[in-house]
Amino acid sequence: MRKILFSTFLLGSLASAEDLTGWISDASCGASNANATSASRECAASCIKGGSKAVFVSDKDQKVYQISDAAKAAKFLDKKVKVAGTVKGDTIQLSSIAYTD
User: Fold this and answer.
1) Pairing mode, if any, of strands 64-67 and 81-88?
2) Which of 19, 35, 37, 91 could bridge to 66 as Cys pair (CB 3.0-4.6 Å)?
3) CA-CA distance, 52 to 46, in Å (whole number)?
4) pLDDT tens digits in sequence order for the chain, 101 residues long
């Protein structure tokens, strides 16, 4: 019984559901393209077209997260976004993404 409780606690602490606000950027530039300037938005779009994966950069702490559905996220380059999903380490298992108001 203790092993089951410990395993449940351990798995719960490794992955957590979260809603985060930030920017879609590219893996090459990461947090440096996580802002509203047209130069950053164009650079991220260009890098993603060139083969770099889309990533999410949190406004809160500028942490760069890999995204489970990078192709879907790449469609949200224009504005700040809110993502929901399960965070495990530096990866977000994306359940939804939308522009913020």
Assistant:
1) unpaired
2) 91
3) 9
4) 555 544 444 444 457 889 999 999 999 999 999 999 999 999 999 999 999 999 999 999 999 999 999 999 999 999 999 999 999 999 999 999 999 97
